[in-house]
Amino acid sequence: MSKLDQRIKRQNTHNRKALQNIRVIRALLDLQLPSNVFIYQLRKEMSSHHIFIDNTLTRESVIVGLISIGLGIILCTFSAWAMLLIFIGLCFIIYGYSIHFPLKELDDLYKDLNNYILEKKYNFKFYTEQNLKEKTIKIKDFPLFNAGNRKNNVHFLLHGHWSIQNQTHPYIIFQYDYINREMVYVSDGKWELKDVRYHLWGIMLEDFPIKGISLSAKQKTACDLGVKWESSDIHFNQKYQQSGISEFELARFLSPERILYLEKILDCFPGDFYVHPQKSTLCWICDVNLSKIENHEYWINTVSDLSDHLEKLSMPNFELFAEMLEHLIIETPKRRSLSPMRNI
Question: Would you list the domain boundaries of the chain?
Answer without folding.
Answer: 2-102, 124-331
